Amino acid sequence: METKQKNRIGSLSRTTKETQVEIALNLDGTGEVQVDTGIGFFDHMLTLFGCHGRFDLKIKAVGDLEVDLHHTVEDVGLVLGEVFRKALGDGAGIRRYGFFVVPMDEALAQVALDLSGRPFLVFSVPFVGPSIGEFDTQLPQEFFRAFVNKAGATCHIQVPYGENDHHMIEAVFKAWGRALRQAASIDPDVRGIPSTKGVL
């Protein structure tokens, strides 16, 4: 039976002249999610992430949406990445690697990641249009780049094919949640830090 560390939680409040972001995260949750960023589509994607990752997640963000959605989306990524790293601690006992593939109708998304401490993002998604409603299709890449930089994760996100932008990005967030859950989960066969360097 898989064992779990206690208190793998993190929270952070960050205020700038552009945004106010508050996030609380429990890595060993049940998928209870409360998200309010003022951006409906983004809220939907973050809810899918929390539910499929089975993370308990609370996000409240207020940003200068009258200017653009960019600041809010990027800053949520930054804070979420930092909170995730805080909740993960030193990473002792984790599986470290995660991989998941999610089909959604005609689209297929695959996410491979390594909680290595080395931030790097590969994002290859063949979006068809410039936006999904008011949500610019450039924003997902900015969000994931912000997350990996603060979380210290290597993350490869690819959609080899798809025709509907909504389907493609929804599949990505679902696959990301499940891959991250896998990588952050405790492996009873792992003793200490899962790296020959002794640190992540």
UniProtKB/TrEMBL annotation:
GO molecular function: imidazoleglycerol-phosphate dehydratase activity
Catalytic activity: D-erythro-1-(imidazol-4-yl)glycerol 3-phosphate = 3-(imidazol-4-yl)-2-oxopropyl phosphate + H2O
Keywords, ordered alphabetically: Amino-acid biosynthesis, Cytoplasm, Histidine biosynthesis, Lyase
Keyword match Membrane: no
Enzyme class, broadest EC rank: lyase
Pathway: Amino-acid biosynthesis; L-histidine biosynthesis; L-histidine from 5-phospho-alpha-D-ribose 1-diphosphate: step 6/9
Pfam families listed in its UniProt record: IGPD
Predominant place of localization: cytoplasm
EC number of this enzyme: 4.2.1.19
Presence of the UniProt keyword Nucleotide-binding in the record: no
Gene Ontology CC terms: cytoplasm
HAMAP family (alphabetical): HisB
Family: Belongs to the imidazoleglycerol-phosphate dehydratase family.
UniProt-recorded name of the protein: Imidazoleglycerol-phosphate dehydratase
Source organism of this protein record: Desulfatibacillum aliphaticivorans
Lineage start: Bacteria, Pseudomonadati, Thermodesulfobacteriota, Desulfobacteria, Desulfobacterales
